[in-house]
């Protein structure tokens, strides 16, 4: 079963309500997405910790062969200081 970009964004924003989230459908099939998540909470975390936190926010939607989301190319960033 495919997921909509807005559903992925909503799941991420539940955990990171202040984040800037950009979702792109890479293949047009609802199964292969790219996401960029920019959030201040990443500041004291390394890249692996940042990405694990975002994947955890998806609440199992990528788990195993029966997950609703097949692939997510994830980029996490810290907001630029002014």
Please tally the β strands and state the result.
Answer: 3
Largest sheet: 3 strands, mixed
The third-level CATH topology is: GMP Synthetase, Chain A, domain 3
Portion of residues in beta strands equals 15-25%
The helix/strand order is HEEHE
Radius of gyration: 12 Å
Number of domains: 1
> Outline, from the CA principal axes?
globular
The CATH class assignment is: Alpha Beta
Structural class: alpha+beta
In short:
This protein is of the alpha+beta class and 82 residues long. It is 27% helix and 24% strand.
Q: Can you describe this structure?
A:
- By secondary structure, the chain is of the alpha+beta class.
- The protein has a single domain (5-77), classed as GMP Synthetase, Chain A, domain 3 (2-Layer Sandwich), CATH 3.30.300.90.
- The protein contains two helices and three strands; from the N terminus they run H-E-E-H-E.
- The protein has a three-stranded mixed β-sheet with strand order 1-2-3.
- A hairpin with a 6-residue loop joins strand 1 (20-25) and strand 2.
- It is globular.
- The model has no long low-confidence stretch (mean pLDDT 91).
Characteristic key phrases:
alpha+beta; 2 helices; 82 residues; GMP Synthetase, Chain A, domain 3
What is the secondary structure topology, with strand pairs?
Elements lengths: L4 H11 L4 E6 L6 E7 L8 H11 L13 E7 L5
Parallel strand pairs: 2-3
Antiparallel strand pairs: 1-2
């Amino acid at each position: 079963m495919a997921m909509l970009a807005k559903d992925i964004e909503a799941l991420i924003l539940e955990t990171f309500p202040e984040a800037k989230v950009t979702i792109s459908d890479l293949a047009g099939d609802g199964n292969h997405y790219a996401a960029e998540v920019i959030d201040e909470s990443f500041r004291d975390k390394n890249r692996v910790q940042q990405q694990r936190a975002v994947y955890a926010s998806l609440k199992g939607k990528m788990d195993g062969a029966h997950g609703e989301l097949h692939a997510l190319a994830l980029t996490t960033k810290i907001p630029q200081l002014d």
